Automatic annotation (TrEMBL):
Keywords: Membrane, Transmembrane, Transmembrane helix. The chain crosses the membrane at residues 24-50. It comes from Singulisphaera sp. Ch08. The lineage of its organism: Bacteria, Pseudomonadati, Planctomycetota, Planctomycetia, Isosphaerales. This is Uncharacterized protein.
Length: 58
C-alpha cells in the first residue's frame, strides 16, 4: 500500500517536472537564439572594424 502511494507520488512529480520543462523550453530557446544572434553580429562588426583599420587583410 505504502509502496503504491510512493510510486504514484513520484509519477505525479515526474509529470509535473516534464510539463514545467516543456514550458521552460519555449522560454529558454528564443533567449538562447537571441543571445547567439547578438554574439554573431558582434563578431561580424568586429571583423568589419578590423578590416577597415587594416589589422586583418582579407
Amino acid at each position: 500500500m505504502l509502496e503504491r502511494e510512493v510510486i504514484e507520488r513520484l509519477d505525479r512529480i515526474a509529470v509535473a517536472t516534464e510539463k514545467a520543462a516543456r514550458r521552460l523550453w519555449w522560454i529558454v530557446l528564443p533567449v538562447y537564439l537571441c543571445v547567439a544572434a547578438l554574439f554573431f553580429w558582434l563578431f561580424v562588426i568586429t571583423l568589419v572594424g578590423l578590416r577597415q583599420h587594416r589589422y586583418i587583410g582579407y
